[in-house]
Specification:
about 500 residues; 23 helices; 2 strands; mainly alpha; about 0% strand; globular
């Protein structure tokens, strides 16, 4: 490629930057779809080829690199990126000194970060970053899409017209593709737009199995899940005309490029796409959770630890995929969308004011006949918290905790003020000071910073002010407010005459 012959690259590649007064960092930037990922891969291949010649002379080098996924905020930390580079270097190295090995073992045992001093043995590392991880074909996809549009025309004259109308900007190209999607048969068009909506609005990347089950639940009119409703896996991508692709490493779905994410952001903000997206996704999560299965029973003692770990890692698609392959949970294998629904239904419900969603939430939380719900009782695990652990054999789900008692806890945890208000109005004798896994609803609202929930609880006539001063080993809600520097919440307490914070 042309840039490999440029003098700037040749000087940088030979390590002669200092001799010419140049910066040792070679930056590559450009507009979306300019081919940065392709150039990155060529640089890596070129460096590896050149440095392999040095290895023949007894000098070994390692080219370590990272492709960053623009949506993976969890992995884009300095610690995680350095860890990825370090793993590549150690894997490549034949001889590592005992001092280095002992330092690595020490930090692994203590679960601590390595300091720059610990990494002094790393002489030179070449890092080339790109906005897409492991996908070098974004340029060609748009090109193929435009060519396909031309070839679909039925005459030479129409093809010439299509060539003239070929979009000049990316936004135009994306809009043309969406218009083509909508021109498919109704079944294909509806499914493609649903796939695009779920992939864009998802709280994290969804696995292929999760998305198939979500789409099946969305279209179901039954109270039980029917596997025959599952869409064909191949159709998930085919009907989207290249806008959605599969990540083979994690078996998940994602948008083809960050430029498409930016385009959809603008369309969504302008209410031109997916106006009711969060409403329908919330309804689907709740609907899936209340599917009935008489083969699912409430105890499931042998599944507790497995399911809890799976729920905790649901925020990170890569971590989720690794754990799912090593754990055996019959319930989650049968209903793979369940962990996503359990983990995110509350956050999604908080984003909507749709009364149908709020009514379904109340029905889900207060329904007494729940033993055959596929989510019961494992949906309670969300309340335990990500910092907790489960020892083997621990009875982690309280058998005497009723759906009615759980409602204030879920309302406080997720910040569902509309739901909590409806529950408090419907049940005047509900215990809003109940303790579940060492926490009261008030403490949960305090930790999450849900001021509107705190106002509801403090204004309720059944509220016991004594709970503000003591709350098990987690500390009191007031001490929590002070610790987290939540001044607006502090003022709520100061206004009450029955509370002393001295």
């Amino acid at each position: 490629m042309w840039f490999l012959k440029k003098s700037e690259f040749q000087i940088w590649c030979s390590g002669g930057n200092a001799d010419y007064g140049l910066n040792p960092v070679l930056a590559c930037y450009g507009i979306p779809d300019a081919g940065k990922s392709v150039m990155s891969s060529l640089v890596i291949d070129t460096l590896r080829e050149r440095l392999s010649e040095s290895a023949d002379n007894g000098i070994r080098f390692c080219v370590a690199y990272i492709y960053c996924d623009y949506r993976d905020e969890v992995q884009k930390t300095a610690r995680n990126m350095m860890s990825a580079l370090l793993r590549q270097i150690i894997t490549y190295s034949e001889n590592i000194s005992d001092d280095v090995l002992q330092s690595l073992k020490k930090h692994k045992k203590e679960k601590s970060n390595m300091s720059p001093i610990d990494l002094r043995w790393m002489r030179t590392v070449v890092i080339w970053t790109s906005c897409l991880r492991g996908d070098y074909g974004e340029d060609s996809r748009n090109c193929r899409s435009n060519i396909q549009t031309v070839l679909e025309q039925t005459s030479i004259a129409k093809r010439r017209q299509a060539l003239v109308k070929m979009p000049k900007r990316l936004d135009d190209a994306f809009q043309v593709t969406i218009n083509r999607i909508k021109c498919q048969t109704p079944g294909r068009s509806n499914q493609a737009m649903e796939v695009l909506k779920w992939t864009y609005l998802a709280e994290r990347q969804m696995t292929i199995a999760e998305l198939r089950h979500a789409l099946a639940a969305f279209n179901s009119a039954s109270d039980t899940f029917n596997p025959d409703d599952l869409p064909f896996e191949k159709s998930l991508v085919d009907y989207c005309y290249g806008l959605v692709i599969t990540d083979k490493e994690t078996s998940s779905m994602r948008l083809v490029h960050k430029s498409l994410q930016d385009f959809l952001d603008r369309q969504y903000t302008a209410n031109e796409l997916f106006e009711d997206g969060h409403d329908s996704i919330s309804l689907t999560c709740l609907k899936y959770m209340i599917f009935k299965d008489k083969m699912i029973i409430g105890s499931a003692d042998d599944e507790y630890a497995t399911i809890f770990n799976l729920i905790l890692c649901s925020r990170n698609i890569e971590d989720h995929s690794r754990r799912y392959n090593t754990m055996d949970s019959p319930r989650l294998k049968k209903y793979p969308f369940l962990k996503y629904a359990i983990h995110f239904w509350g956050e999604l419900a908080r984003k909507t004011k749709n009364q149908e969603v709020l009514n379904l939430v109340v029905q889900f939380l207060l329904k007494q006949e729940v033993s055959h719900y596929i989510s019961w009782p494992i949906h309670l695990l969300v309340l335990k918290g990500s910092t907790s652990s489960i020892n083997d054999g621990e009875d982690c789900l309280a058998t005497d905790f009723t759906p009615q008692n759980s409602a204030p806890h879920f309302g406080a945890h997720f910040g569902l003020d509309g739901v909590l208000n409806q529950v408090l109005c419907q049940f005047s004798d509900i215990d809003i000071d109940s303790v579940f896994w060492d926490k009261t609803p008030l403490y949960r609202a305090m930790v999450e910073g849900h001021e509107s929930i705190l106002r509801l609880l403090l204004a309720n006539r059944n509220f016991d002010a004594a709970t503000l001063m003591s709350d098990s080993h987690h500390g009191s809600p007031i001490s929590c407010a002070i610790e987290h520097h939540r001044n607006s919440i502090d003022r709520l307490f100061i206004k009450r005459e029955d509370i002393s914070i001295d």
